[in-house]
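We modelled the chain as a single entity of 313 amino acids. Its sequence is:
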Amino acid sequence: MRVQLYDPSWKERVIRLTLHEYPFMESWFIKRFDALYEHPIQQGRHRILLATEGAALAGMVSYIHWPLSGAGEGCRSYQILGVLVSPDFRGRGVFATLLDGMKQAGEEDHADYLIGFPVPASKPAFVKKGWKHVFDMHWYIRPVNILATLRRRPFKGAAFSVAVPEKLESDGLMQTAADPEFWNYRKDFMPEWDSWWHQYHSKGQTINIQFRMGVRKGFNEAIIGKIYAGKAPASLIGAAIKDLLRALRREGSTVFASIAVNPACGSETAKAAEDLFFKTKKRVHFINLSFTGETEGLQPERWNMMRGDIDTW
């Protein structure tokens, strides 16, 4: 078995392996594949590594350029998109082999950070290979309109915008860069789900909240993915969230709203979320493989990560 770089002759086998693992992507995976790897933003800034045995594809792993706010000028940061192993090769060390290949690729690309959000079953394998489990994002939930359970109807986003705001302002902590060009590019990562933006203006500041609609037990759920609030205090961010919830209540189809934050960060966004939402037991792991020799990227208080910071948003 060997680890090699992807070339287009493997595309069909990569597609088959991916759809075996994620069959719900079948109708739109090609669009996602092209967005992830073939967009000009990613040219020369991504890797797809294949574990092969002859003409057989044993597994694959990939990472893409993922710009971070608050990480310093010229930071080379990448997000991994998961490790897939063919059912025919499980139990043969493919996962560990791919992690070794990815670490070597990160060194060759002079990466500062490889970041990821592994499922609980795979997290120990990453940690064993030198990745740091930096923190867990915690999920919070809040009722929006219980009456909407009686008259279920599709969400209509007339009060919101699908256009990425022209100006996004970060709070200076580490997170997906406040870069409208990047957010526009990544719309096709999960093309079947629209994302919406809600703007709140107060005291000379603009707060932008991104959300998507999901379904929880048959009911519409607004999942807040990202909040760009600049240096706004928690009280103002809380007011913006309340304004969003009022708009969702008026729209009439949303039963719940949820948000995931890193409580270890102590950001103003996390403080606002903890004040307004009820904590659940659900968690999302965040891991980091740092090549810098510095500790900043391994400090949980430096990361203001949310659901929208994950590639599957």
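As a brief sanity check on the tokenised model: Residues 234-251 form the longest helix (18 residues). The longest strand covers residues 278-290.
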